[in-house]
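Please decode residue identities from the backbone states below.
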């Protein structure tokens, strides 16, 4: 079986780098990791998420990948960390992953190059529900809802 040009080792490494950069800039996931909302092994779980996404994105072209599949994967993962994300970032991350997937199949890595060149400095306010209860951020209670200045 011949490996298409877009599936070279370099292309696969670029895709993996793109997934890692995107997840590394996802505020909700980073808060869950930093606060160990999924337990002491939250960081390892997040690394496994990146591997799972990677394997879904490198599937053969004949296997259809739907954005809803990625939405469900990300949502289920965050719930497994005792974290419910209602800020639209799951859908945004899924959309960006689909773009990376499509570019990967075409041998085009524009979105990954843009991620490399961008700095995580956009204002992005998220609300995270942890443990089934809304938390609000104020000077008295800064536990779960945070204003993050990350690029997602």
């Amino acid at each position: 079986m011949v490996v298409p040009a877009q599936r070279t080792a370099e292309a696969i490494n670029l895709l993996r780098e793109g997934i890692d950069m995107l997840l590394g800039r996802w505020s909700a996931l980073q808060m869950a990791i930093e606060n160990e909302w999924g337990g002491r092994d939250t960081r390892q779980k997040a690394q496994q998420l990146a591997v799972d996404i990677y394997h879904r994105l490198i599937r053969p072209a004949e296997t259809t990948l739907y954005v809803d599949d990625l939405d469900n994967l990300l949502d289920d993962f965050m719930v497994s960390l005792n974290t419910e994300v209602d800020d639209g970032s799951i859908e945004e991350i899924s959309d960006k992953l689909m773009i990376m997937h499509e570019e990967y199949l075409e041998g085009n890595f524009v979105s990954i190059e843009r991620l490399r060149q961008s700095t995580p400095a956009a204002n992005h306010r998220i609300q995270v529900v942890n443990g089934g209860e809304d938390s609000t951020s104020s000077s008295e209670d800064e536990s779960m809802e945070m204003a993050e200045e990350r690029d997602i």
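Observation: Strands lie at 83-85, 124-126, 128-130, 133-134, 146-148.
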